[in-house]
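Reopening this ticket.

The earlier resolution said the output was attached, but the attachment link was broken on my side. Pasting everything inline this time so it's all in one place.
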Amino acid sequence: MLARVWSASLVGIDAVKVGVEVDVSGGLPGIVVVGLPDTAVQESKERVKAALKNAGYAFPMRRIVINLTPADLRKEGPIFDLPISVGILAASEQISAELLGDYLFLGEVSLDGSLRPVAGVLPIAAAAQRLGITGLVVPAANAQEAAVVQGISVYGCKHLAEVADLLNNPERYVPVKLDGLKELATAQFAGPDLKDVKGQVHARRALEIAAAGGHNLIFVGPPGSGKTMLARRLPGILPPLSFQEALEVTQIHSVAGLLKNRGSLVSDRPFRSPHHSASGPSLVGGGSFPRPGEISLAHRGILFLDELTEFKRDVLEFLRQPLEDGYVTISRTRQSVSFPAQFTLVASTNPCPCGYFGDSIQACTCTPRHREQYWAKLSGPLMDRIDLQVAVNRLKPEEITRQPTGEESAPVRDRVRAARERTRDRFKEDRTVGCNAEMQSQHLRRWCQLEDASRNLLEGAIRKLGLSARATDRILKVARTIADLAGDENLQTPHVAEAIQYRTIDRMQ
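Inline output:
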C-alpha cells in the first residue's frame, strides 16, 4: 500500500514543502530511501524501525521504498524521522490515512518512540501557513516556537503513540495557542545596566547615539579602561524588538538550532561576541549547505568584536559588504542563499600592541613602526564604515574608588526610543529605513541639509582628516541622530561638530 505524508526542508531561512511517499509491497524485507537524502536521513530508517517496535507497533517485514520529493532537492537532518514513521504506519494500515493531507509532520524520533526537538520549525510553520496546510505536528518542545505563526493549528506531541492517536481521534486534541504580541509586551531585559559604569561620560554619550541611530561603534583605549564593560551595556538601552523584527530574529535562530527547548519568540535584541580566532565563514555563514553565521545571528542586534586588531585582516574584510548592504549572499555550486544581516557593529581595541599609547600614566613601549603595523590590520574601507570612533581613557583614582553616579539604562532607553520614533515618523512612507544608519544618498540630500557654517566646518574636517565620501556621509548620519536626540528638525552646527569629534582613529592616524 502507498501512503503520502507532508514534511518540509530548509533552504537558507526559507522552507520548501517535501512529500514523503512510503510504499510497502511484497519482496525481500528491507528499506530503501531515495530522493537525495543525506547521511542523517539514511540513518533514520534504523531509528524508525527500532522506535516503531519499542512503541508497540508492528514493523512490516516487507519491502519498503521511501521517496522524498522533489527528487532534486537535498534532504538533510533528522527532521524526516516522524513523517517516515507516520508514512510506514499508514502504509501498513496501523493508523488512519484520511487526515494525512491536512497535516505537515516534523521531528526526530528516539529509539523508545519519544520525539526530540529539531531546528528550523518556525520558518517551516510560516511556509506551511502560506501553502494552506491546516495543521502542523511537531515535538512538544517545538510547539511554542511553531505556534508563533498565526492561522495554522499546531499540535505538540511527546511520543509516536500520541501522533497515532491524533490521526485516529483528532477531536481529542486541542492545538497550542500563543499570543506573540503579549509575549513581547511582558518580556523584560535582564542584562547589565549602565549605572554600573564609572565615569566615561564621553563613551556613554557615544553609546546613546549608537543606540538611537543604529551606528557602528569602536572603543579605543588602554587595558582596563572599561571598553568591554561599556559595549555589553548597549543592548540595555536599545528599543525593544517589534513583532516583525522578533519574527525575523527568531526565524534565523530557529534555522541555526538555537531555539530547541527555549520557548517561542526571541524577545531581546541579539548580542553576539565571537572570539578573535573566528574564521570568515563562521562570521558570515557558510558550509556545503549554507547556515547563518554570526552576523546573521546578530540581525537586529549587536555584533561585538572584542580586541578587533587580533582578528585576522582577511576575516574582517568579510564584513565590508554586509555592513553596507544589510544582508549576505552565500553562493555554492548547488544553490545560492541570502541571509539578513542588519546589525550594529561594536568593537574595542587597544591603541597599540602594548596598549598604552597616549596613556597619561604608563608610558608606551612601542615604536612608531610597531604602531603602524598594528593599525594596518584594519583597512581604510572597513574603518570608513565605523561611524563612531571613541577614545576611552583610563579612569581617575577618585572615579575608581567612588560609587558610580551615572544614569541608569532606563532613562537613556527612553530617549533612544523617542529618537527612533522621530526617525520612523520621518520615513513612514519609506519602510526600507528603520534607523538613521540605514539612510541612502537620496535621504541625506533631503534630511541632512547644512547651513553655511556647518558646511564650512565639515569641509575643513574633510581636508584635515582626509575623509572619504563614505566617511562624510557617516558623519552626516551621526549628526542627524544627534539632532533627533535633541528634538531638532534641522541639522545645526553643534550637531555636525559633535559628529566630527567621534572620528578619533582618523585623528590618530
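Reporter confirms the inline version is readable. The two ends are 76 Å apart (CA to CA). The CA atoms of residues 48 and 85 lie 6 Å apart.
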